């Protein structure tokens, strides 16, 4: 079967998933509703269609409209929340009135109806099923593989070698997800999957921000996305088939394959959706966190030395373990500061199922409320020296890491989502990021291969435009 045939076969399934909804989605049809001020439709579209301008557009909205802004794009009314109080009111006090926003509708074409996109009872059932895989004891078991695979990846590095650090971290985190959650060696697939994933993210991201329009009409962009999706499906379907033959070995994929819900086993399609979700959400966000961390350390040698002093004192050249994490507050602070400045999930939204009043404005059922962690994390209203890389802002007077130490209001720091839709893999991600950095930063100090500024761009996650070329050098 040719690549083009596989791509064509991927389209009908993608369209079918777009049309599926676990919960009826209300249509916001009232036109005579007072709206807060905000940018024109033309300005909003022009910026959202530019992966390079989009994150800075949200920063500008936060400065110009510090409470709430309205914009209308492609027939949908969207409200950007820039006030911590309104964010808490919407995402906590009215959490029962929220479902995922329009961008997630488009994402269904890629990951199906898994944890990231499902709603209501379906989501709760899926989350209950997945929860044991992210228990602390399981993560402790995963941690050994995380370090082992990082050391194996390090053996491919040599001083003076130029690499794209974003590709390096993508390959590493994909291998870690494959081993820990699926009991599968994905090292041979890392290149193909990484390339397909980058193509899928870049081609579809700008359209996902506007809704699932891309997949409904034939276009070169849809064709490229379909080819990438077919590559991903081939790998995922092979993993599932191998696991069905091998039987239950206790990993995450076994939980999915052999679990029963109301007496019925999950279908291969349901399992595939969850695997696709975990491949995307379980490795891409951490890969980008690590990528931005390397960029910031290379740009701030004093902070890199500050980090290495801790690693030398605690680890003294040996590989880290799960037990070491509590003794590495600087390492965690460095990663937290990288997430603050370059949050992988730079924007997310929710739909209201019923009318809600926020800040004196009526937000009718069906509208989309949006939050930009990229904008909120860089706001000088909440963060002193907001654009500076200052990891020590996360340490208290004793040198211990404290997520509350920056003193920002609730609703400002939301890198892993919110409420009952908060990322199920948060602790997995923290553990992986800390162990990877603690393993590699002891002996490696990669430098930027160019003096040109590294520009972030939106590709569902926040990625460095054109990758991150770095030259490997030892400490």
Tell me what you see in this structure.
- This protein is an alpha+beta fold.
- It has a single domain (3-471), classed as Cytochrome P450 (Cytochrome p450).
- The chain is 50% helix and 11% strand.
- The protein is built from 17 helices and 14 strands.
- It has helices spanning 3-18, 41-48, 54-64, 84-93, 102-111, 120-130, 136-154, 165-182, 190-208, 213-216, 220-246, 252-258, 268-299, 301-315, 329-341, 373-376, 426-440; strands spanning 68-73, 76-81, 98-100, 162-164, 260-261, 264-265, 348-352, 356-358, 361-363, 368-371, 447-448, 456-459, 461-464, 469-471.
- The strands form 5 sheets. The protein has a 5-stranded mixed β-sheet with strand order 1-2-10-7-3. Strands 4-14-11 form a 3-stranded antiparallel β-sheet. It has a two-stranded antiparallel ribbon with strand order 5-6.
- A hairpin with a 1-residue loop joins strand 12 (456-459) and strand 13 (461-464).
- 47% of the residues are buried.
Radius of gyration: 22 Å
Q: Give the helix level as a range of percent.
A: 40-55%
CATH superfamily: Cytochrome P450
The structural class is alpha+beta
Strand count, sense and barrel status of the largest sheet are: 5 strands, mixed
- The overall pLDDT average reads 87
Tell me the fraction of residues in β-strands, as a range.
5-15%
Adjacency order of strands in the biggest sheet: 1-2-10-7-3
Termini separation = 49 Å
Number of domains: 1
CATH hierarchy, class:
Mainly Alpha
Query: If you consult CATH, what is the topology?
Result: Cytochrome p450
Question: Count of DSSP E strands?
Answer: 14
The outline comes out as: globular
């Amino acid at each position: 079967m040719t690549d083009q045939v596989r791509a064509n076969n991927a389209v009908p399934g993608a369209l079918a998933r777009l049309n599926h909804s676990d919960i009826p989605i209300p249509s916001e049809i009232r036109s005579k509703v007072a709206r807060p001020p905000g940018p024109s439709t033309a300005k909003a579209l022009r910026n959202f269609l530019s992966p390079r301008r989009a994150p800075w557009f949200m920063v500008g909205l936060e400065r110009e409209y510090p409470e709430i802004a309205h914009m209308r794009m492609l027939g949908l009314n969207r409200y950007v929340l820039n006030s911590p109080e309104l964010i808490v009111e919407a995402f906590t006090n009215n959490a029962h009135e929220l479902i995922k926003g329009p961008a997630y509708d488009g994402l269904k074409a890629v990951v199906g109806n898994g944890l990231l996109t499902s709603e209501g009872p379906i989501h709760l059932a899926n989350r209950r099923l997945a929860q044991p895989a992210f228990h602390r004891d399981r993560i402790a078991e995963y941690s050994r593989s995380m370090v082992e695979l990082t050391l194996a990846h390090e053996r491919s590095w040599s001083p003076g070698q130029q690499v794209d650090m974003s590709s390096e971290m993508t390959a590493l985190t994909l291998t870690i997800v494959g081993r820990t959650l699926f009991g599968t060696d994905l090292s041979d697939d890392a290149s193909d999957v990484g390339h397909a994933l980058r193509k899928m993210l870049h081609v579809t991201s700008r359209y996902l921000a506007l809704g699932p329009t891309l997949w409904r009409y034939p276009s070169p962009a849809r064709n490229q996305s379909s080819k990438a999706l077919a590559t991903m499906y081939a790998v995922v379907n092979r993993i599932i088939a191998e696991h069905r033959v091998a039987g239950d070995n206790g990993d995450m994929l076994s939980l999915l394959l052999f679990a029963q819900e109301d007496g019925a086993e999950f279908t291969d399609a349901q399992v595939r959706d969850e695997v696709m979700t975990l491949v995307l959400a379980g490795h891409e966000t951490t890969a980008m966190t690590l990528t931005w961390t390397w960029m910031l350390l290379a740009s701030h040698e004093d902070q890199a030395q500050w980090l290495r002093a801790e690693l030398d004192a605690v680890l003294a050249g040996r590989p880290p373990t799960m037990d070491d994490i509590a003794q590495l507050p600087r390492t965690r602070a460095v990663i937290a500061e990288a997430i603050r400045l370059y949050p992988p999930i730079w924007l997310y939204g929710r739909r209201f199922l019923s009318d809600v009043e926020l800040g004196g404005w009526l937000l009718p059922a069906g509208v989309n409320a949006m939050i930009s962690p990229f904008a909120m994390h860089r706001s000088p209203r909440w963060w002193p020296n907001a654009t500076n890389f200052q990891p020590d802002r996360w340490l208290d007077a004793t040198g211990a890491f404290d997520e509350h130490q920056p003193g920002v209001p609730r609703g400002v720091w939301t890198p892993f989502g919110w409420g009952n839709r908060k990322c199920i893999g948060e602790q997995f991600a923290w553990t992986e990021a800390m162990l990877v950095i603690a393993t590699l930063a002891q002996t490696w100090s990669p430098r930027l291969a160019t003096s040109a500024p590294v520009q972030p761009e939106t590709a569902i996650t926040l990625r460095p435009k054109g990758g991150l070329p770095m030259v490997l050098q030892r400490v």
